[in-house]
Design brief:
The chain is an alpha/beta fold. The chain has 11 helices and 12 strands. The chain folds into 2 domains: 200 residues, Bordetella uptake gene, domain 1 (D-Maltodextrin-Binding Protein, domain 2), CATH 3.40.190.150; 115 residues, D-Maltodextrin-Binding Protein, domain 2 (3-Layer(aba) Sandwich), CATH 3.40.190.10. It has a 7-stranded mixed sheet, with helices on both faces. Helix 6 links the parallel strand 7 and strand 8. Helix 1 runs parallel beside helix 2 and helix 4 crosses helix 11. Keywords: Signal.
Amino acid sequence: MPNDTTITRRALLSCAAWSGVAAISPAFGAADAPYPTKPVTWVIPFAPGGATGRLSLLVCEQLSLRLGQPFVLDHRPGGGGNLATRSVANAAPDGYTLLATSTANIINAARAVPPGPDGTGDIIPVAGMARMPLLLLVNKELQVKTLADFLAHARANPGKLSVGSAGPGTVQFASAELFRTLGGITWSIVDYRGSGPALTDLASGHIHAMFDNTASALELLRSGKVRALAVSTRERSQAFPELPAVAEVLPAFETSGFYGVAAPRGTPKPIVDLLNREINAALTDPAIIRQFAEIGATPISGDPGIYAATYRAEIMHWRKVVQASAKN
């Protein structure tokens, strides 16, 4: 299984600088050691270069500073996020293995037959990170300038366009399927082990288009290697006000990326509560607020119960999307 473990220099320095930070990590009882007392593995279900990794890096740097231990990014791509999710579900429920969740977890739960009561299975929601729009991207050689041009081109060339995705069950895949369904078009979807490799092929002209998160696509957009035609959210994005919403042409279209953190079921509540508080606090850091705004991401905060309820609501939304796509 591919594995790319990343820890930032700032995270390492923060660990050294905060070696005496035990007061920040409350003891859970006279017989219990404070948490965390060693590095925490933060599993990312996709290859480096995607939005999940970028958001995780920002949050983990803050957590390393606040809690005095490194939060180590561990990329485990494959299976549309399922491989990493299963590995975390099977890990010891002690707070030292966490999962960066994305819309892929939500969609996989929405596709489950029969559906579970909350779609989380053997992981439990801990805290939110962000919600962000996707962009409809095309390679610079494709002779379309607007969303309407692209839709007309796709309809006039059935089966000839190739569209990238981060893997089956991901928000990129589901957005492409919903666009296909509502637009009455046909195209081929090419699955990758994350959005990073898909974007590379889009920029090099190996595929024609893809939906991807604003965080992942920003550098390629700035360099002019790809073009953005629209945003996936119901309304236009403040980060990209010049781009129309897909819903302006296909009124029923609406998708967005939804990112958070989960832990193995059975993780002690005091640890879950501590992580939730610290992640919520990290999201108020001015640097994170600024960097989230640059990519159109909106922080998600709230206690574990509120976040779990939002998680379940997302599953119900995506279940309708999955059912609509399955009919066509």
